[in-house]
Automatic annotation (TrEMBL):
PANTHER family: LYSR SUBSTRATE-BINDING, TRANSCRIPTIONAL DUAL REGULATOR HCAR-RELATED
Highest taxon in the source lineage: Bacteria
Domain HTH lysR-type: 2-59
TM regions (residue ranges): none
Lineage: Bacteria, Bacillati, Actinomycetota, Actinomycetes, Propionibacteriales
Alphabetic keyword roster: DNA-binding, Transcription, Transcription regulation
Protein family (similarity comment): Belongs to the LysR transcriptional regulatory family.
UniProt xrefs under InterPro entries: LysR_HTH_N, LysR_subst-bd, WH-like_DNA-bd_sf, WH_DNA-bd_sf
Protein name, entry field: LysR family transcriptional regulator
PROSITE patterns with a match to the protein in the record: HTH_LYSR
Length: 302
């Protein structure tokens, strides 16, 4: 009988394109994945890998076996879901992906009650940008992703994914207290022409939002510091190195040298929980979604 773990390793290599990438997705070392594939070759008496240049590729036989493995893994997952559904209890591993400010500002509110109320549930958390979180859910690496988007930078989902809105998170323009705009009650994009921006790196939702917002005002933003972490951005603002646009979730108290000014029209990012539709009947998914909604409501009314 073919070992399920070895089929899973082959499926991951086919899905991610290399042993290294498959190892990262599975949480193994590349050596461990290679050993699983070597054992699978012996079990099936079939050559599964061949060298090409500096890398390896799957043989035609391996591609066919990987396609079958995908179906087998789906059946196993369905069987596990049915068993958990029958028990009616949240059990087993539940992996949540969350972007950094949600990991800091929302999950610490949601997790204690979720864990205490479901002792058979093994909750794990991994920090990911929204684009990566959605992809990880779709690949089955995580069960729920807390993500966000902006009205002018919507996050599109494939048909096999579901989502529920948790709430909206307003963003403000942050400037040093010595800045020319620091005493303004509100600002508009036109007021920000010529400013030096501190922002997330290109390819992130927040960077895309800033570029689209300023371009709509006829301005190309000058992003001089590409910094992923908001707290690092605030540290730079504290030293007068530029201006930023930072949402309120997980922002915390601002240094005395930094002030927040509402932007008009007021921008807000929308927060969602995303999961694979097929797993919706799993009690662990249902109670986690409930905990996230309750946590957002609690922190919003605190």
């Amino acid at each position: 009988m073919i070992d399920l773990g070895r089929l899973r390793a082959l499926h991951a290599v086919a899905l991610y394109g290399s042993v290294g990438s498959a190892a990262d997705a599975l949480g193994y070392t590349p050596s461990a994945v290679s050993q699983q594939l070597a054992k699978l070759e012996r079990e099936t008496r079939t050559t599964l890998l061949e060298k090409r240049g500096r890398g390896i590729v799957l043989t035609d036989a391996a591609q066919e076996l990987a396609a079958t493995a995908s179906k087998v893994l789906e059946l196993v997952e369905d069987a596990e879901l049915r068993l958990e559904e029958q028990r009616g209890q949240a059990i087993g591993e539940l992996v949540i992906a969350a972007f950094p400010t949600a990991a800091r500002g929302l999950l610490p509110v949601a997790l204690p009650g979720l864990i205490d109320g479901n002792p058979a549930l093994d909750v794990r958390v991994v920090e990911m940008d929204p684009f990566d979180g959605v992809a990880a859910v779709q690949r089955g690496e995580v069960h729920i992703a807390v993500v966000h988007d902006w009205a002018n930078t919507p996050l599109t989902l494939t048909e096999d994914l579901s989502r529920t809105k948790l709430g909206t998170d307003p963003a403000d323009v942050l400037v040093p207290t010595t800045h020319r705009l620091a005493d303004k009650e509100t600002v508009r994009p036109a007021d920000l022409v010529g400013e030096r921006w501190i922002c997330q790196p290109p390819g992130t939702i927040c960077h895309d939002w800033l570029v689209r917002t300023m371009r709509k005002a006829g301005v190309e933003p000058d992003v001089v510091y590409s910094v992923a972490e908001y707290q690092t951005q605030i540290a730079m603002l504290d030293r007068g190195l530029g201006i930023g646009m930072i949402p309120r979730l997980g922002r915390g108290p601002l240094p005395e040298n930094v002030t927040a000014i509402p932007l008009q029209p007021a921008p807000s990012r929308r927060l969602y929980a995303v999961w694979r539709t097929a797993t919706a009947r799993r009690p662990a998914v249902a109670v986690t979604l409930g905990a996230l909604k309750t946590a957002w409501r609690d922190r919003s009314t605190a």
